[in-house]
Amino acid sequence: MMHASHRAAGYIAAMMHRIAGIALAVFLPVHFVALGTALGGAGAFDSFLSATNTPLIKIAEGGIVIALATHLALGMRVLAIEFMIGREPTRIVVPVCLAAAFAVGLLFALNVQ
Amino acid sequence: MSAILFTAQRITAVFLTFAVIAHLSTILYAVRGGLTAADVMARTRGNGWLLTLYVVFVVAVAIHAPIGLRNILREWTPLNRRSLDIALAAFAVLLLALGLRAAFAVYR
């Protein structure tokens, strides 16, 4: 059931913060296992990197970068509300957080090779 | 218990704020050059400062993520709370073990 409050900026921010956090929690063990292949030396690590050098994986990587930036920006908002400023102009702060996360994703997309 | 978990999550969040900004900056720099694994490892291997940073990073994540998941799963699912706590404690140990292994693989 969709309530009017579900369209409020604060609710959208809380949902996006959570969904980005879940995505990161699912990704992290895979990321750690991937980095662990470096134990086998640069050759083993490189084989892993070339095996994952596909368009689909690149898009997924971009998604994870955006998830990390989103969780960071919205998490900083939570810390600021709880420990520093109390209330904030939610309708301004939340879009700024999401724009910052999108900008990081764009930088990644423009730079990735 | 919840007060301790809340405090632990917020303290780790403050550290992770700085660590993730540094990590994201490194990602954006590293992907730019199309670095090979050998290039990356030549820069990372034997760097004690980065190893220390990433060890603390992994410990903070292994505390922060399971507490966040616990809050979400308690709210969104009818899962038994005790089973959930045990599963998430196991997830914390898994993150810690895999994360430390990864940090030592890349930075030691």
Report on the structure:
The complex is a heterodimer of chains A (113) and B (108). Chain A has 113 residues and is mainly alpha-helical. Helices cover 81% and strands 0% of the residues of chain A. Chain A has a single domain, classed as 3 helical TM bundles of succinate and fumarate reductases (Up-down Bundle), CATH 1.20.1300.10. Chain A has four helices and no strands. In chain A, helix 1 crosses helix 3 and helix 3 runs antiparallel to helix 4. The model of chain A has no long low-confidence stretch (mean pLDDT 86). With 108 residues, chain B is mainly α. The relative contact order of chain B is 0.14. At the A-B interface, helix 1, helix 2, helix 3 and helix 4 of A face helix 1, helix 2, helix 3 and helix 4 of B.
Which labels suit this protein?
heterodimer; A: 113 residues; 3 helical TM bundles of succinate and fumarate reductases; B: 108 residues; mainly alpha
